[in-house]
Design a protein that fits this description.
The structure is a homodimer of 204-residue chains. Chain A has 3 helices and 12 strands. Chain A has 204 residues and is α+β, with helices and mostly antiparallel strands. In chain A, the strands form 3 sheets. Chain A has a 7-stranded antiparallel beta sheet, with no helix packed on it. In chain A, strands 4-3-5 form a 3-stranded antiparallel beta sheet, with no helix packed on it. A two-stranded antiparallel sheet of chain A has the order 1-2. In chain A, helix 1 packs across helix 3 and helix 2 crosses helix 3. About 3% of the residues of chain A have low confidence. At the A-B interface, helix 1, strand 3, strand 6, strand 8 and strand 12 of A face strand 3, strand 5, strand 6, strand 7 and strand 11 of B. Chain A binds a DNA duplex (30 and 30 nucleotides) through helix 3.
DNA sequence: CATTATGTTCTCAAAATGTTCTCATTCTGA
DNA sequence: TCAGAATGAGAACATTTTGAGAACATAATG
């Protein structure tokens, strides 16, 4: 009734389903499909949710017409820091989420001690890190063997390499992931760890 | 009772939980969830804390309604959608930002028509997409030659490949980025585009 | 036009959630 | 030590939310 009302759980689920359906099919779903999509059997109940979403101004309908739902405003309940994480995307059917893990949470990338670095060069290409990628680094001064680190050499040059101690820790190896390049070895005192790789992203 | 009263430990815990929950879910938690969140079993006890927080003016509730809690006092606002984007990280010195682009904004990844898919297999490895990576897909039904797409073949099988039209659009090539695998060619009617790759991320 | 599918409205319940209580137990400061 | 505060469990009840399905009206279809 009241346009300022909050949506109930099922009403939000319904809105979410309709948005996804329209995104994948370009037309709106029918009541039967909505019912199945949100896990119930009754068209009447599905219609009740449509009515609620209409009353709250999220959608409007061509009354009586088949597939007559239109979205009116963006869904404010969509969590801006997570994305649906999908397993299979089959036709028509509601999208199949990965069991036990249906939301991807990107806040892992946004911790207070994290920063991003744009990667230059191909030295880590065999680790799947390509020129132009952005890597997420956690500020740290120590690393474990095998970590990929941002290392500062001789207080001047910064590089992204795999980290490994050598000679009981007196030396440090910085190992590229590119068979055309050679690993480098430095006295431990010349190398300073700036941070450790915790994530990577790429934008197309 | 008294609005100037200090909060007890559990009341503070409850308030923290509610703030975090709302930040994560956009809607308020129900009593059962609050109880579990602060480590107790009784909804009644959880409600007692809600009552105390209401009396002290931190929250208000839509009496009776499910998920009817609203925060009243401002909670520290954190912008979690950007990260500092750094060029060089030199010792001691304040970190050197990339000129003209000093914040990485991940909101591109969170559009309402985007979703995430966990990648299985090595078919796109030469494009830097490895087994276990997560790719961000924008819902779309059309693609341009060269796009990497999620394609549904024969309404059953879903795959991530590079898209290319062939024979004036009567056929569609799906091209892996792996020299050990061969490209596949289908009649256009057998292939349905589910979305186009717009980003990729990996967590270490 | 006849038939089927779909949208709409309705009633009857069941399940989930919020609210209020009582009864204990633990903690804290005078 | 003792009284009061804080905490926890859970029963009992009221209200909200959810679900099924019948009945009817209208739209879509051939």
């Amino acid at each position: 009734m009241n346009a300022s009302q909050q949506l109930t759980d099922k009403q939000r689920l319904t809105l979410d389903f309709i948005e996804r359906y329209i995104a994948t099919h370009t037309v709106s779903p029918k009541l039967q499909e909505i019912a199945e999509g949100i896990g119930i059997r009754s068209r009447g109940v599905a219609h009740r949710y449509i009515q609620a979403l209409t009353d709250t101004g999220f959608i409007e309908t061509d009354s009586g017409k088949h597939r007559g739902i239109r979205l009116l405003k963006p869904n404010p309940y969509r969590d801006e820091s997570t994305l649906p994480l999908l397993g299979k995307i089959a036709a028509g059917k509601p999208i199949e989420a990965i069991p036990g893990e249906d939301q991807l949470d990107l806040r892992d990338f946004f911790g207070r001690n994290n920063f991003a670095v744009r990667v230059q060069g191909d030295s880590m290409i065999e680790a799947g890190i390509m020129d132009g990628d952005t890597v997420i680094i956690e500020f740290r001064e120590t690393a474990n063997d095998g970590d990929i680190v941002v290392a500062l050499i001789d207080e001047t040059e910064t590089t992204l390499k795999r980290f490994k101690r050598s000679h009981r820790g007196r030396y440090i190896k910085l190992i590229p992931a590119n068979k055309d390049m050679e690993e480098m070895i430095y006295e431990a005192s010349r190398v300073r760890i700036q941070g450790v790789l915790i994530g990577q992203l790429r934008k197309y």
